[in-house]
Amino acid sequence: MEYQFPKDFWWGSAASGPQTEGTYEGDGKGPSIWDHWYQEEPGKFFDGVGPSDTSQVYKRYREDIQLMKATGHNSFRTSIQWSRLIPEGTGEVNQSAVAFYNDYIDELIANGIEPFMNLYHFDMPMALQEKGGWLNRETVDAYVVFAKTCFTLFGDRVKKWFTHNEPIVPVEGGYLYQFHYPNEINMKQAVQVGFHENLASAQAIAAYHQMDLGGEIGIILNLTPSYPRDANNPEDVKAAAIADAFFNRSFLDPAVKGTFPEELVTIIKELDMCPDMQAEDLTTIKENTVDLLGINYYQPRRIKAKESAMDHSHGPMPDDYFDTYDMPGKKMNPYRGWEIYEKGIYDILTNTRENYGNIKCYISENGMGVEGEGRFINDQGVIEDDYRIAFVSDHLKYVHQAIQEGTNCVGYHMWTCMDNWSWTNAYKNRYGFISVDLANDAKRTIKKSGHWFKEVADQNGF
Ligand code: BG6
């Protein structure tokens, strides 16, 4: 075998509650921002498919766990939907949700799959969004109560917790670039939301450590390396460093080092957009850093010095400091419109080793969304997704290299286990090791990549 991974390497995949569970009559789930947005603007969602019609995991998790086994999982991450467990965001706990998550967790463990649980995957309970969502300090308090409730209910069995998945996305999507509810463009609000998410994470980490449940808690970040157009042009390099501070270090630095990056603080001060905070907040963030870092990697960011005119119709924007560089000849995933750059995963891992104390980390998402996979079905009804096998193995080679060089990377999770609901893209692009046939009662079939992944996991390499 050419690429042998360390003993006890985590092989598996990631998903989220809102993208997989679905909603059912009498399940007691409260509305999240996604349920609300879909009700308001169903046309925004690909083919009009909304968040209730996801892959029926709420009912079918037992069957799905068998498929996880058959695809080599020794670990699996999903999220607890806040609006399922505490339908109003605060107050009463939904006992049907407790029963569901308990059984889901127990069933995973009984099948030799370690459950990793994330607490927030873009799914603000609507009752809290109505009061401002992450803009409102009370949401931080409510989140910490929710987190403690999860630790108390499930912490005897769940030993890997994550405070957020990609916390920059609610900032970008909800308050800058309009792809998440509430669909605003307002940099000052974006800064406040980001600050509150960081604070909520630190407070949840403090609570978890205090409870002394014998597990680890971390955060999952989509680290998107920023490459300058020309590494010898100081203006390009500076622009790339600013983009990095906005989109990566805004969460990576506080999560791992307990501090915010100087470049970002300087800009926010110049703009007079410092967030509202209380005296002890920065100390809380300083003192409660993560045990473990999850890294989601899909694509790099190519940056050049600002050349285009600034658009201030909505006030200042991060893009005032850089332009996106459309690099000629880059390799693309045309369905998602994302560049494929395998070495990026190595660069991120090297960065964590060199600049972040070689923190214990794992690849928590990596994957390739493809539209119309039905055209690759063979006579046995299996999707022959050789492109996905190539994508995963090409990235794994770089993960392997980083580990050889000493990076403390302990696992690789694919996005995702089975095709799921991708927010406004709904079921347009499919990411899973397992297909879900929506026209046929969401019938599950393992793809060629799923069979391949089982071999890789069984051999601990390829
Ligand atoms: C990650 C998210 O950004 O990428 C997932 O954690 C998401 O929730 C996945 O589904 C793929 O991106 P998209 O936008 O194609 O769904």
TrEMBL record:
Residues of the active site: E365
GO biological process, one term: carbohydrate catabolic process
GO cellular component, one term: cytosol
One Gene Ontology term of the molecular function aspect: beta-glucosidase activity
Keyword vocabulary terms for this entry: Glycosidase, Hydrolase
InterPro entries, A to Z: GH, Glyco_hydro_1, Glyco_hydro_1_AS
Chain ranges passing through the membrane: none
Keyword Transferase belongs to the record: no
Taxonomy, superkingdom: Bacteria
Family recorded in the similarity comment: Belongs to the glycosyl hydrolase 1 family.
Protein name listed in UniProt: Beta-glucosidase
Organism field: Candidatus Enterococcus testudinis
